[in-house]
Amino acid sequence: MRYNYTRLKRVSQINSNGTFAFNTDLPFDPANPRTYPERLSIRLGTYNQFIKNHTYEAYARISGKWEAAQR
């Protein structure tokens, strides 16, 4: 019998600088409003996830003769 306890703190700072979404693939043109980004998404603060895991493991050994069965 074996017992494992795992504690994990997961920190993510993905998208902390922001992401612009464009509705077109045209090169940027200050005179053309269609080439401006239509959306900005940005993460505020950090993402923390705390994970606790309890694992119990049991092993058994079965002795005997193993043979392939005929079909």
Q: Which secondary structure elements does this structure contain, and how are they paired or packed?
A:
Blueprint (H helix, E strand, L loop, with lengths): L1 E11 L6 E3 L17 E3 L5 E11 L14
Antiparallel strand pairs: 1-4, 2-3
pLDDT < 50 stretches:
none
Q: How much beta, percentage-wise? A: 35-45%
Instruction: Report how far the terminal alpha carbons are from each other.
Output: 38 Å
Fraction in helix? under 10%
Order of helices and strands: EEEE
Tally of contiguous helical segments = 0
How many β-strands, per DSSP? Answer: 4
Radius of gyration based on Cα positions: 28 Å
pLDDT averaged over residues? 87
Shape summary? elongated
Largest sheet: 2 strands, antiparallel
Kindly report the spatial arrangement of strands forming the biggest sheet: 1-4
Give the structural class: mainly beta
Task: Describe the fold and architecture.
With 71 residues, this protein is an all-beta fold. Helix content is 0%, strand content 39%. It contains no helices and 4 strands. Strands 1-4 form a two-stranded antiparallel ribbon. Strands 2-3 form a two-stranded antiparallel ribbon. The protein is elongated, with a radius of gyration of 28 Å.
